[in-house]
Amino acid sequence: MTESVLEFDRVAIHLGGREILSPTSVSIKRGEFVCIIGPSGCGKTTLLRAAAGFVTPSSGQVTRHGKPVTGPSREVAFVFQDYGRALLPWRTVARNVALALEAARVPAAEQAARIEKVLATVGLSAHADKFPAQLSGGMQQRVQIARCLAQSPEVMLMDEPFGALDAMTRESLQDEVARLVREQGLTVLFVTHDLEEALYLGDRVLALRANPTAEQPSLAALIDVPLPKPREQLSTKEHPEFLRLRRELYHYLGHA
Fold first, then answer.
1. What are residue 191's DSSP bridge partners?
2. DSSP-derived 3-state class of residue 80
3. 106-115 contacts: CB < 8 A, separation 24 or more?
4. 123, 128, 130, 132 alpha-carbon torsion, rounded to 10°
5. In whole angstroms, how far apart are CA 107 and each of 8, 14, 125, 226?
6. Distance of alpha carbon 82 from alpha carbon 101, whole angstroms
7. Would you call 18 exposed, middle or buried from its count of C-beta atoms within 10 A (0-12, 13-18, 19+)?
8. How far apart are CA 205 and CA 34, in angstroms?
9. Is pLDDT at 131 greater than 90 in this prediction?
10. Of 3, 36, 54, 71, whose CB has the highest number of CB atoms within 10 Å?
């Protein structure tokens, strides 16, 4: 049986006197790609931040390998939606990636080789000396992903990382992230508003509803996505099971 990496044990979160997330329990297994969807204000990002140790649950507990998550860890990387603000404009691509190595106190003599390797992994070797303003949005997001990979994380938390990108760039990065996850054995929690993106990337999809009540808690559905991998933008999205799951999720969210 695959080992669980992250456990949410009846995690509830209240902010400003309002219940953002009602008690929610879910287990994330090693190497699993779990997408979180739901309407605005349903607690998707809040749940992700609790997994990162940025937010303390009002009740319940988040654990990683059975140990309580009490704060950020180098083994957990967070990819933000706003890649422009996540990068330092006065640092080159290589030096932005170096931030993760500097925080981990990797000796300067070892940094160049590791930066070169991770930039090659995301296809940015030719852009190491450029500044963020010289890059497209998709390339800037690749830099942020490269910086996260440089810290050699076990878990990657991604908060709508492709939401601000055009459709073709978004699809390209979806495939790139899927490849990286397969190659590096990462465990991923991925927040998105896009049902098709969730089904295309996820092994499972966790659907949340806004304004939870005792009768209708935050967790609306948790469904498996048994589509074959690697997935392809056209054939996967035309697969009968993909279409069936999309209808199922739409139903859950339509009544969320």
1. 36, 159
2. coil
3. 114/150, 115/150
4. 60
5. 36, 42, 21, 43
6. 21
7. exposed
8. 6
9. yes
10. 36
**Residue 58 and residue 13 in contact, taking contact as beta carbons nearer than 8 Å:** yes
pTM of the entire predicted model? 0.91
Give residue 166's pLDDT. 87
Cis peptide before 153 (omega within 30 of 0): no
CA atoms within 13 A on the CB side of 216: 12
HSE-CB for 161 with a 13 A CA cutoff: 31
- pLDDT digits over 65-109, tens only? 999 999 999 899 999 888 778 899 999 999 999 998 998 888 888
CA atoms lying within 13 Å on the CB side of residue 21: 28
Task: State whether residue 26 is helix, strand or coil.
Answer: strand
Distance from C-alpha of 206 to C-alpha of 221, rounded to nearest angstrom: 6
The reported pLDDT for the residue numbered 256 is 47
**Cα–Cα dist 11/7, whole Å:** 10
Distance CA 60, CA 73 (A): 20
